[in-house]
Write a structure and sequence with these properties.
The complex is a heterodimer of chains A (306) and B (181). With 306 residues, chain A is an alpha/beta fold. Chain A has 2 domains: 136 residues, 3-Layer(aba) Sandwich (Rossmann fold); 147 residues, Aspartate/ornithine carbamoyltransferase (Rossmann fold, 3-Layer(aba) Sandwich), CATH 3.40.50.1370. Chain A is built from 11 helices and 9 strands. Chain A has a 5-stranded parallel β-sheet with strand order 7-6-5-8-9. Chain A has a 4-stranded parallel β-sheet with strand order 2-1-3-4, sandwiched between helices. In chain A, helix 2 packs across helix 11, helix 5 crosses helix 6 and helix 5 packs across helix 11. Chain A is globular. Chain B is an alpha/beta fold. Chain B has one domain: Rossmann fold (3-Layer(aba) Sandwich). In chain B, the strands form 2 sheets. Chain B has a 5-stranded parallel β-sheet. In chain B, strands 1-8-7 form a 3-stranded antiparallel β-sheet. Chain B is globular. Classes of the chains: A alpha/beta (306), B alpha/beta (181). At the A-B interface, helix 1 and helix 11 of A face helix 3 of B.
């Protein structure tokens, strides 16, 4: 069965079968990444444009690597120094790129819904690589893949997401995907960082780490976005660290072994202490590797949908 | 629907054919010391497993056995087909400088074997690659031939060959089917 949609815009509303298909297919690509020659030919002759209207290193490199390892031709595009700074609209930029016979577009944009809009105005397959604080579906998928790889399942696992939930597209994609796959999902953070009515998504809300940690299987620690004026959401970094920072002492007190995840980049010793980030329960670097496999899976499934 | 035209190989014949293939492989390679076995998913994987078991029994040794999913290397992937499911390649050993015995159930156009050769080249540089098939039904579209053939079966291009294996189908048999009606 092929994917139901020709685009990947978000995990909200995606069926269990589609999620399962992407994760299962990613296993095959994960194997390719262990080969001496880490390249397979299925996207030969296809062209993928990476349109990043917002800064990104990891996601952009990960997509680019995934595309190249599938033998696609890759077009890079960064908003700075391009026609965007001359006032061109998103629609015109995209249509011009599509006029060059591009088959797929991977887009990151600061506006929520930008990739939905794009998918309505161009014919190419659109993959959302992060739109504002809305969704970041491939991050959600790679987190789910990594959890499944570590625990063998998603069903009935307790995944707790810690940090600024309100402004996090990573949190939203994780919540949608994990809930569909039957996981128990909770969020933990200061009240200023938890959206009101988030419990409507079937998520448990905590404001004290010590209340939730004793039952957690997977802890997904979000980055405090210091560059996005996080300062108005809590008094000081020191206070955030003391209340919500993930430290060895806090984990030992919870008395439970849990998998530690972080979407990166890490603020060491702010949201997570260095020793926890580097501990044997941390899968942060596996997340990065799995990200390439999951993105290969998405690109492959969308381009061979016919 | 396709109707049965003839049974080409029955259960006993199946075992005997695989035993002969195993012995031919051993004879040509002067033993099993440098060979590794790779089956092409899905049916070739089962044939490969059986041949491996026979060789291991005869030679009192353990062989490396892997399987290839050639889907990503197909030449019709972006064309007409319904999206094929990836089942994954599992070759968990080094094939460099080994003699790889590539095994499939039916040799037909040769396109599957072309894809498998390309995939093997990405996994390493074997000393040799030898092809063993249960049935060669002719109609090659590429310059490819098998080193070991269980049975040559003349067919017309629109007939089809069905290979049944115990593991999946409950019986071992090779059937020749009439063209689609």
């Amino acid at each position: 069965m092929p994917l139901h949609s020709k685009h990947l815009l978000g995990l909200d509303g995606m069926s269990r079968e589609d999620l399962q298909l992407i994760l299962d297919t990613a296993v095959s690509f994960r194997e390719v990444l262990d080969r001496p020659i880490k390249k397979v030919p299925p996207l030969q002759g296809k062209t993928v444009a990476n349109m990043f209207f917002e800064n990104s290193t990891r996601t952009r490199l990960s997509f680019e690597l995934a595309e190249r390892r599938l033998s696609a031709d890759v077009l890079g595009f960064a908003a700075t120094g391009s026609s965007v700074s001359k006032g061109e609209t998103l629609k015109d930029t995209a249509r011009n790129i599509e006029a060059m016979k591009v088959d797929m577009v991977v887009m990151r944009h600061s506006a929520a819904g930008a990739s939905h809009y794009l998918s309505r105005v161009i014919d190419a397959n659109v993959i959302n690589a992060g739109d504002g604080s809305h969704e970041h579906p491939t991050q959600g998928l790679l987190d789910m893949y990594t959890i499944r790889e570590k625990h063998g399942r998603l069903n009935d696992l307790h995944v707790c997401i810690v940090g600024d939930i309100s402004h996090s597209r990573v949190a939203r994609s994780n919540i949608f995907g994990l809930k569909t796959m039957g996981a128990r999902v909770s969020v933990c953070g200061p009240a200023t960082m938890i959206p009101r009515e988030i419990d409507r998504l079937g998520v448990e809300v905590y404001h004290h780490l010590d209340d939730v940690l004793p039952t957690v299987d997977v802890l997904n620690v979000l980055r405090i976005q210091l560059e996005r004026d996080a300062g108005r959401l809590f008094p000081t970094i020191r206070e955030y660290r003391q209340t919500f920072g993930i430290t060895r002492r806090r984990l030992e007190k919870a008395g439970r072994v849990m998998t530690i995840m972080h979407p990166g980049p890490i603020n060491r010793d702010v949201e997570i202490s260095a020793d926890v980030a580097d501990s044997e329960h941390s899968v942060i670097l596996q997340q990065v590797l799995n990200g390439v496999a999951v993105r290969m899976s998405v690109l492959y499934l969308l381009s061979t949908r016919n | 629907m396709r109707r049965l035209k003839a049974q080409i190989i029955d259960t006993d014949g199946f075992d005997r054919t695989l035993t002969r293939l195993a012995h031919e492989i051993l004879e040509k390679n002067r033993g099993a010391s440098n060979i590794v076995i790779v089956g092409i998913r899905t049916r070739g994987e089962f044939i490969a497993r059986r041949v491996t078991r026979i060789i291991e029994t005869v030679e009192h040794t353990k062989l490396h056995l892997g399987s290839l999913d050639i889907t990503l290397y197909r030449d019709d992937l972006l064309g007409k087909l319904e999206q094929p499911q990836l089942k994954g390649t599992e070759v968990l050993f080094d094939i460099n400088d080994r003699d790889v015995i590539l095994i499939d159930d039916v040799l037909f156009t040769g396109r599957t074997i072309r894809a498998a050769l390309d995939e093997l080249a990405d996994l390493g540089r074997p000393r040799s690659i030898q092809l063993a098939v249960l049935v060669d039904r002719g109609h090659r579209q590429l310059p490819i031939r098998a080193d070991y053939v269980g049975k040559n079966v003349p067919t017309s291009a629109n007939e089809s060959i069905r290979v049944h294996v115990k593991e999946v189908d409950g019986e071992d048999a090779v059937l020749l089917m009439h063209p689609e009606e």
